[in-house]
Specification:
two-stranded antiparallel sheet; disordered C terminus; lysine biosynthesis; schiff base; 4-hydroxy-tetrahydrodipicolinate synthase
């Protein structure tokens, strides 16, 4: 059984006065480990890695891994919470060097999107991912997100890449039910939705889980959703998802991670800071988020009517 199942959180990078706030980052790792999430993603899109220099990226990853290990030690668990690491770019050789560096770290795997901006052919995508997977000693999770990269991973491409022993899962943000279903039925890749509003659909189809930015808020309810559906408790899962759906939708009403950070800041967990060109969520949206979050905390089913 692949480890790439359940609810994974693509961690935001907290800032304080323009610098990475490592104390707040440790607090987030503890919060999500205690909520029972399956794993964390470091330096994914939600973590604003494009706004971090190389040294900052390494420091963020080191903090997450260290706190995950510390949490395991305090709880007596044999293994730390798994951490997947985002590796992005469009220069295959540089990405390969980064992956070789990561081989020595105790990570669960690497998350890699198609090369952005240059829009390579499908053959070029296969060659790119194959070279990177060949260099990786850790499992690889493909990231299909064409609205960011400018190129989608076609089904034949995904099925070809599924034959590589290191490529074990896909973060599915393509918006194609046909491809999602075909990958699930093929069975070689674990399918994790990256579109939070599709969590219920993907799990009911037989997908393995989600990498969900919105699970930064009320993570225990997202874990309960996964567990209910994994156990076949459809009505319970539907009830939980319907209660979460308005909050999920509001959290993506403006560019991620602005709304997520605003609500985490309202909880006192981080400062509401982003680095340009990302900006804070607007005041009207923050007010709406506070309203939905209040309903979700105090009346889990009342949010469905909001």
């Amino acid at each position: 059984m692949s480890i790439f199942s359940g609810i994974w959180i693509p961690l935001i990078t907290p800032f304080a006065d323009g610098e990475v706030d490592h104390a707040a980052l440790r607090g987030l790792v503890r919060r999500y480990a205690e909520a029972g999430v399956a794993g964390l993603v470091a330096l994914g899109t939600t973590g604003e890695p494009a706004a971090l220099d190389a040294a900052e990226q390494d420091a963020v990853l080191a903090t997450i891994l260290d706190e995950a290990r510390a949490m395991a030690g305090r709880s007596g668990d044999a293994q730390a919470l798994p951490v997947l690491v985002g590796v992005s770019g469009n220069h295959t050789a540089s990405m390969r060097e980064r992956i070789v560096q990561l081989n020595s770290l105790p990570i669960a795997g690497v998350l890699m999107a198609a090369p952005y901006y240059i829009r390579p052919s499908q053959a070029g995508i296969v060659g790119h991912f194959t070279r990177l997977a060949d260099a990786s000693e850790k499992p690889v999770v493909l990231y299909d997100i064409p609205y960011r990269t400018g190129v989608r991973l076609e089904l034949d491409t995904l099925l070809t890449l599924a034959a590589h022993p290191q490529i074990q899962a896909v973060k599915d943000c393509a918006g194609s039910l046909d491809i999602t279903l075909a990958l699930i039925r093929d069975g070689r890749l674990q399918v994790l939705t990256g579109e939070d509003v599709n969590i219920f659909n993907t799990l009911c189809l037989g997908g393995s889980g989600a990498i969900a930015a919105s699970a930064h808020l009320r993570p225990e309810r997202f874990v309960a959703l996964y567990r209910a559906l994994a156990a076949g408790r459809l009505e319970e899962g539907r009830r939980i998802f319907h209660a979460l759906a308005p909050l999920i939708q509001a959290l993506f009403a403006e560019p991620n991670p602005g709304p997520v950070k605003a609500l985490l800041a309202a909880h006192g967990l981080i400062r509401n800071e982003l680095r340009m060109p990302m900006t804070r969520a607007g005041a009207a949206l923050v007010e709406r988020l506070r309203e939905l979050d209040g309903l979700a905390r105090h009346e889990p089913d009342a949010i469905a009517a909001a």
